[in-house]
Amino acid sequence: MIGRQEYLFDEPESNFWNFIKIEPVKWMEKTMGNEGGGFWVVAVFGNRVLYYNDIEEGFNISLYSSYGEIAEYSCEQSDLYDSVVSIFNGLKNPPYWFI
Description:
This protein has helices at 3-6, 11-20, 80-92, and strands spanning 21-29, 39-45, 48-53, 58-66, 69-70. By secondary structure, it is of the alpha+beta class. The chain has one domain. A five-stranded mixed beta barrel has the order 1-2-3-4-5. It starts with a helix and ends in a 7-residue tail after the last helix. The model has no long low-confidence stretch (mean pLDDT 89).
């Protein structure tokens, strides 16, 4: 799933993605993540993670305070490309969630 969208990034976006991505690993999330053993985190940046929500079948950006635990449930249903570009553009022109 990730490989099918990585080719869409331009060079700056690709460099950014390579900087924040991690090997996908399941992190726990208390409200909805228990059933499937957590959600697949694919990137870490600052105090936020980018993860795949297999319930809603989309990527989400959420806070974390302890490594391995997503602090808040999100169900955006975004694809990887749109999520990474949103983060990348947000760092250039921070929206409220980067403050």
